[in-house]
Amino acid sequence: MPVLNGGDLFRGALESILGQTYRDIEIVISDNGSSDGTSDYAKSRAAADPRIRYFWHEKTLPALQNYRFLVEHSRGEYFFWAPHDDWWDARFVEVAVKALDQRPSAALAMGTVHYLDRNNGTELWNDHPPYGLDGESAYERIHYYLTHPITDMLYYAVFRRTAFADVEWIDSTCPEKSIILAAIAKGPVANGPGMEYFNRLSRKTGEQIAAVNALASYSFRYQWRACRSAVVALYKGVSSWDFVRLLPLLIVRQNWHKQLVKDLLTDLRLLRRAA
Question: What does the pLDDT read at residue 217?
């Protein structure tokens, strides 16, 4: 569980993990320098439940490096990231373990993702299995992923830890693509009907979205890092010939070509103004 000033939402998230019907779990909490009551609450729960291991970082890590820390400090065969402001049905882990045990070739398992309005809890929409990524061919899985609107919430699936072996942990704007590409290159996505994950969303106005896009993390430099990490994941995951065939889909169908040009022009305009 990565957390930074999680407040009451963190308490709800942690309790939903502690309440899983599958009891043989390890809960690793990586507190990225919280200054609210998150630390005290996490320590009290860790003292009461030996399944919890709590880490606190005095200096805040980049988000992706905090996620990497959790992978490196976990010990189970299966693994998933649990954001501090979301929650999970009590059978989420149980169904995932069953799905992965029944399909040894699968690299990850995912069920239904419910997107909730952060303010009032109403469901906005959902993504659900089958995700079309359950075939045995790595080329076909990646081709399908790059040519269909598949949710990046597969980032929060339950993975075999071996799926992270070739991941490039490059700090970037959107690391989800490289994580998912690396995983589905290793094996299919096992469909997990009954795995229910509830993701809280903050609805943003046009002005708020523009403000986010203006952040330094959305500059050409960080978008280039995101693109590079995805390309590296693709290169490591398939044969050279399949890489040549899939690379144009990654760049064009995922709109990297438009985003990179847009961010480069934006950065050049900012530099011109500064001069």
Answer: 53
Nearest-angstrom CA–CA distance, 102 and 193: 14
Q: Sorting pLDDT into bands at 50, 70 and 90, what band is 216?
A: low
List the CATH code of the domain at 1-77.
3.90.550.10
Q: Which two tokens mark 56?
A: 């606190």
What is the three-class DSSP state of 33? coil
What pLDDT shows up at residue 137? 96
CB neighbours of residue 57 within 10 Å: 15
> 16: which residues sit within 8 A by CB, 6+ positions away?
87, 88, 89, 90
> Burial, 217: exposed, middle or buried (Cβ in 10 Å; 0-12, 13-18, 19+)?
middle
Q: Sorting pLDDT into bands at 50, 70 and 90, what band is 113?
A: very high
Tell me the C-alpha distance between 54 and 45, whole Å.
Answer: 9
CA distances from 172 to 128, 177, 224 (A): 27, 11, 8
Q: What is the pTM of this model?
A: 0.89
What does the domain layout of the chain look like in residue ranges? 1-77, 89-275
Of residues 217 and 191, more confidence is placed in: 191
Distance of alpha carbon 178 from alpha carbon 192, whole angstroms: 22
DSSP of 159-217: EEGGGGTT------S-THHHHHHHHHHHSPEEEEEEEEEEEEE----HHHHHHHHTSGG
d(CA 143, CA 166): 19
What percent of the chain has pLDDT above 70? Answer: 91
Given a cut of 50, whether residue 261 has pLDDT beyond it is yes
Residues recorded for the chain: 275
